[in-house]
Amino acid sequence: MTENLTENHHIPESPSLYAKHKKVYPQAITGAFRTLKWKVTAAIMAFYFITPWIRWDRGEGEPDQAILASMSLRRLYFFNIEIWPQEIYYLTGILVLAAVGLFLATAMAGRVWCGFTCWQTVWTDLFVWVERKIEGDRNKRIRFDQGSWNLDKIWRKSLKQFIWIVFSLLTGAGWIFFFNDAPSTAMNMLTGQGTYEEYGFTFLFSATTYVLAGFAREQVCIYMCPWPRFQGAMFDEHSLIVTYEAWRGEPRGKSKAQNIGDCVDCNLCVNVCPTGVDIREGDQFQCIGCALCVDACNSIMTKLGRPLNLITYDSVSNQMARERGDEPKKRLIRKRTIAYSILLSAVVVLMAYGLLNRSELEINVQRDRSPLFVQLSDGDIRNGYTFKILNMINVPQTYTLAISGLEGAKLSVIGLGKDPVDTVTLDVEGDTVATYRVFVRAPIETMRSQFEDMEFILTNSETGEVVRYDSRFAGPVR
Ligand code: SF4
Ligand code: SF4
């Protein structure tokens, strides 16, 4: 049946959804944006490779790495600030800041994050720089790749791969140092005494760097990264994006005829593009906003003595204004950017307030569920609690524990005497969580219902800081 159908009817072939990869050979270019990109790259490299080695004295027995996300200690250290797992909301705050900051930057100047600071762009840029130094600039590299294998090709390709691998290994290890003490971890790994996890993660991150920056390159931005798919929601017609000013560039051409625009169709803007985009065809999601085509075109305009910025940061509304013959305006301050700025400021203020008023003492109480209560021989009711004290100061502290809200109630703590008392003194080592078993007993006459509200009050004997914890006291059904 199927055979008959195909024999008698012409079934149109559906177009292939597969596009063959065309290797991009970005040409070197100099200019204002290229210089800015190098400066940003230098800052990112310095942050990535130097910060884990900065030391910060926190006292005896404490890690002395200024920035450290210690998995074993379950702490995040940032100079003087020490974030405990219970304070994970600070990390959430940082992620919210990063997201809103990205929205604001995109609303103002398009994909500046992608073009200048995204680590895929930065590392790819460095890998391409190495390639260019060893194999030559664009045309030479194209010829080199198309040429047959000889000794020169073998050693240049090998040298490039060797440098890429070394740089990938440094990158992989650099990531590990943010999570472990950098000097001792480096020494252990170099002397073969590192842990399986350290070697394993270094290999994983090194391999990822090598593949993504060395081979996948612009394909990560075009096919793998989700950001280009929804960044359009952050733009509006006033956002500045890298744009070809078609109104003065077209009709393009190399001739000197009078009605020809400023674009001489030299293709340099396409040749320098790291994603192989022709920006003259309009805004495209493959464009990462690196502005290298701006430098390229400006170099041509300078040579020709024509006005600069045929390709420039411009907005859709300005282009439309020019078409109407109106004066273009830059509108950085508008509803969208104001809203993002307010949100950004609010998160910054909230986080700063939280950090400045941060308590270095926290308690966590869990009431026993089984049994809910015990009736003692004298008729009193007793409840058991697991009482945790987080001393976030790195010196031992002494606290006084009391209860309120439950008439006639007394306390006792396992290991600190059996007699019920009004207050009890608890010692906690510096920078630790201490767990105590606490019993509260109260006369049965106190119970007006099956559950009575009560409050634990913990006071730091030295600083006077008080932390309260609402809890309940259970008794028989009434
Ligand atoms: S079109 Fe221009 S701004 Fe966009 S990625 Fe290419 S060089 Fe960068
Ligand atoms: S670099 Fe400028 S002049 Fe050359 S093709 Fe691109 S837009 Fe035209």
TrEMBL record:
Q: Name one GO cellular component term.
A: plasma membrane
Keywords from the named record: 4Fe-4S, Electron transport, Iron, Iron-sulfur, Membrane, Metal-binding, Transmembrane, Transmembrane helix, Transport
**Domain of life of the organism in this record?**
Bacteria
Q: Where is the 4Fe-4S ferredoxin-type domain?
A: 254-283
Molecular function (GO) terms listed? Answer: 4 iron, 4 sulfur cluster binding; metal ion binding
Q: From the record, give the transmembrane residue ranges.
A: 36-54, 88-107, 162-179, 199-216, 338-356
- InterPro entries per record: 4Fe4S_Fe-S-bd (IPR017896), 4Fe4S_Fe_S_CS (IPR017900), Cyt_c_oxidase_cbb3_FixG (IPR014116), Electron_Trans/Redox (IPR051684), FixG_C (IPR032879), Ig-like_fold (IPR013783)
Q: Name one Pfam family in it.
A: FixG_C
What PANTHER family has UniProt attached to this entry? FERREDOXIN-TYPE PROTEIN NAPH
Protein name as catalogued: Cytochrome c oxidase accessory protein CcoG
Q: Which organism is it from?
A: Magnetovibrio blakemorei
